[in-house]
Amino acid sequence: MQGWEKEIMGQTAKRLCECEPFIVGQNNKTSELSILNVGFGLGIIGSFFQQYHPARHVIIEPHPDVLQFITERGWPNKPGVHIYPGRWQDFLVDVQESKIQANFDVIYWDTFSEGYRSLKGFFNNMSDRLSGSEARFSWFHGLGATLRTLYDIYREMAGMEMREAGPKSRGWR
Q: Which GO terms label this protein's molecular function in UniProt (predicted)?
């Protein structure tokens, strides 16, 4: 993730977390909001998620340098934060083996240097990880970013994949 993405990440966190049934009272206090954050990067969206005081914020990150950055910034000591030092594919194996409880109100996917096949693989497993009909999923769409036509094709493909995977999709732009 890069610094210029800050405004995008702030709006994304707001749309994912500022909705019923997650918000209770003032100051964006949440009840039992549970977030899965796949890919940490610079921690921009993670920091925005923390403003909503989630009861559980699981961060999946495989890169050793990013894990060191996470530790240096004190993330393992934040309330409700759990760091999974590995790939999302390994996380799903641990979930399937009942090593980890994995029902989330919000799932955000932004991994570095993974192609469409990986995103599709995540889509196929993501709907089982959502906590219910009000749960939300989003991802940072950087596929085909250097050519508008490819970007549009990937957007349409992702929409079809999401509908096929189970959750209702809306707001495709």
A: protein arginine N5-methyltransferase activity
The alpha helices in the chain, defined as continuous H runs, are 6-17, 44-50, 64-72, 88-96, 116-126, 148-165
Write down how long the chain is.
173
pTM, to two decimals: 0.78
Q: How confident is the model at residue 72 (pLDDT cuts 50, 70, 90)?
A: very high
Any domain includes 171: no
In-domain check, residue 140: yes
Which residue range forms the structural domain that includes residue 37?
Answer: 3-165
Total number of domains in the chain: 1
Say whether the peptide bond before residue 21 is cis (omega within 30 degrees of 0).
Answer: yes
Q: Does any domain span residue 152?
A: yes
Model confidence pLDDT, tens digit, residues 3-42: 677 888 898 899 899 876 565 555 555 568 999 999 998 8
Is residue 173 over pLDDT 80?
no
Q: Report H helices in 61-115.
A: 64-72, 88-96
